[in-house]
Specification:
By secondary structure, this protein is α+β, with helices and mostly antiparallel strands. The protein has two helices and three strands; from the N terminus they run βββαα.
């Protein structure tokens, strides 16, 4: 199998990288290399980011529920993920 392409996109405050074995293939991994931090953000994101990634892998799309109490992270994540998926399909 050829190396898996990594698509990157930064929108709002949460850059995402998603992996799929081929264009249009299943999402096999999502990496969130940085997200808002400091103060209460650390606590919120420790819960929100794994939940968003898990939901993405299950849904196989960026259409996932927002995480309660993590509106900015959820919005930034889903926007960035959708952009990364769009780039992977291009």
């Amino acid at each position: 199998m050829a190396p898996t392409p990594v698509r990157r996109c930064r929108t709002h405050t949460v850059p995402c990288r998603c992996r799929s074995p081929s264009p249009g293939g299943r999402i096999t991994a999502v990496n969130v290399p940085q997200y808002p931090s400091g103060g209460r953000s650390d606590e919120i994101n420790a819960r929100a980011v794994p939940t968003l990634v898990s939901e993405t892998l299950g849904a196989q799309s960026a259409r996932v529920d927002m995480v309660s109490g993590a509106t900015f992270t959820s919005e930034g994540y889903t926007t960035s993920l959708q952009n990364a998926l769009d780039q992977a399909r291009a």
